[in-house]
Amino acid sequence: MNNQQLQDLVNAGIGLYKAGEENLQGFLSTLQKSFEDLKSKGAQDSSETAAKLRDSLDQTIKGVKDVSEKAEGNLKVVLEEAKKNYSQVFDQIKTFVGEERIADLNTRINELSTLIQERAGTIVNQGAGEAKTKASSKPAASSTSA
Predict the structure, then answer these.
(1) How many CA atoms does the CB half-sphere of 135 hold within 13 Å?
(2) Most buried residue among 5, 18, 53, 65 by CB atoms closer than 10 A?
(3) Which value, to the nearest 10 degrees, does the dihedral of the CA atoms of residues 115, 121, 122, 124 take?
(4) How far apart are alpha carbons 47 and 14 in whole angstroms?
(5) Cα 116 from Cα 31, distance rounded (Å)
(6) Residue-by-residue pLDDT tens, the chain, 146 positions
(7) Rounded to whole angstroms, how far apart are CA atoms 36 and 124?
(8) Cα separations (Å) of 15 from 7, 19, 24?
């Protein structure tokens, strides 16, 4: 393929791109104009059917908003009730077990957590050491060729 043919292919590609871009712009412009025309015709329609449709749509939107607001209100009530119940249960536990015992349990849990983390770190480090030992104990590949 010579330079002239390559240049022709590049120019054809550019022309195709430009034509596609112009067609897309024209289509979008036509679509926007059609939408505006339909919107205008719909706004001018004062028939009984159009009025019923608008009322129905308004009621649907209002209903959705009401349901959403009620759900949000109910969620807040449930969360407040759960918070209150949690506080009551926690107060009863503190009364039954005692705050000193709870503090002691928290301390022991923290100590256990620290011990587990230390042991896990030791195990991981031992595993890494074994892997290094195994790697260094492998015989080196012979550099002489047969």
Answers:
(1) 6
(2) 53
(3) 140
(4) 51
(5) 67
(6) 788 888 888 989 898 889 999 999 999 999 999 999 999 999 999 899 999 999 999 999 999 999 999 999 999 999 999 999 988 988 888 888 788 888 888 899 999 999 999 998 888 887 766 666 666 665 555 555 44
(7) 69
(8) 12, 6, 14
